[in-house]
Design a protein that fits this description.
Layout: H1 7-11, E1 43-47, H2 55-66, E2 70-76, E3 95-99, E4 102-105, H3 109-120, E5 128-135, H4 140-144, H5 147-157, E6 162-167, H6 175-200, E7 210-216, E8 230-232, E9 241-247, E10 253-259, H7 269-274, E11 278-284, H8 291-300
Parallel strand pairs: 1-2, 1-5, 2-4, 5-6, 6-7, 8-11
Antiparallel strand pairs: 3-4, 7-11, 9-10
């Protein structure tokens, strides 16, 4: 995700001061329709990996709906944190419909998105999939294994624009402060969507195959403070979670995980959230490299034959 191919587009998101802070958005979203027409609400599929009734997804549902969008929750029945891009791993799935506009899928975020696109939206794709807001950050190596990001990837694979959203700094989250910070997180997302609509006019919200991984910091002791700005970033290459295995002597091994962060990479998502900025990292649904890295590998393998 470090590829420079994403940055020219993403930098356009930050070219006016309106997106730099996280103050509440009071105006209705701008329309993706031609200039001069009335704004229209977006049809949004809202998912997450913390579960359909978690504080983050409920805050997102409330504020996105208040902004005028038509929001439907299709999210896991239970907590599915860390499931990454896993999906379609069973021959049956249990689905509940506990209230209007809410569907709970007994599976991963990817399963939820797949069910939502196929059945809830009945093949008429939504304008946008929003995954989150997650409890805790999804930066650096955490993003690679994140169910929140996995839900957005499932949407991108189906050709639907997607945004993954997380709330947290580069440390173990404080429960109360993190939940409090979910409101400014979603207020920022409302402003971001407003920006995408105003730039899209009658076109797509995002370039084909490109999604956004958004990480909003927890600011202030109570988490209610505004972010210090926003930055277009890439995924920091480090993985700060280091597993350790201890032999119990009976064929089982005790697993512990240590948090051992390294210095933040310049221009990365860790650097941004550590500076109390919102990190906006463009991402794709595939694992292709950028042109420069592709050329390097091609040179290494020139002349190789079976």
């Amino acid at each position: 995700m470090r590829s420079k191919r994403f940055l020219p587009f993403a930098a356009l998101l930050l070219c006016t001061p309106a997106l730099a802070g996280t103050a509440p958005a009071t105006a209705a979203p701008q329309s993706a329709a031609p200039h001069g027409s009335e704004p229209r609400p977006l049809r949004i599929l809202l998912t997450n990996d913390d579960g359909y009734n978690a504080p983050g997804i409920r805050t997102a549902f409330q504020l996105l709906t208040a902004a005028g969008h038509d929001v439907t929750i299709v999210a896991p029945l239970t907590n599915q944190s860390g499931t990454g891009t896993k999906m379609l791993s069973g021959t049956t799935v249990t689905v509940r419909h506990p209230e209007p506009k809410v569907w709970a899928v007994d599976g991963t975020p990817g399963d939820s998105v797949a069910f939502g696109l196929s059945e809830v939206f009945d093949g008429a794709a939504p304008d946008l999939v929003v995954s989150g807001t997650n409890f805790g950050p999804n930066v650096a190596g955490l993003a690679t294994h994140s169910g929140t990001v996995g839900g957005a990837i499932a949407a991108l694979e189906s050709g639907v624009p997607a945004i993954a959203v997380s709330t947290g700094g580069w440390a173990a989250p404080d429960p109360v402060a993190t939940v409090n910070a979910m409101r400014p997180t979603v207020e920022f997302v409302v402003k971001l969507i407003d920006r995408l609509q105003s730039r899209a006019r009658s076109g797509p919200l995002l370039p084909a195959g490109i999604g956004l991984n958004i990480n909003h910091p927890v600011v202030g002791a109570d988490g209610k403070g505004p972010a210090e700005g926003a930055a277009v970033t890439y995924q920091d290459p480090q993985s700060a979670l280091v597993p350790d295995f201890t032999d119990s002597g009976d064929g089982t091994w005790k697993v512990t995980v240590k948090f051992e962060p390294r210095p933040a990479a310049k221009g990365g998502d860790v650097e941004a959230v550590t500076a109390s900025k919102v990190a906006i990292s463009p991402m794709s649904a595939d694992w292709n490299t950028g042109p420069a890295d592709f050329a390097k590998v091609s040179a290494l393998l020139t002349g190789l034959r079976p």
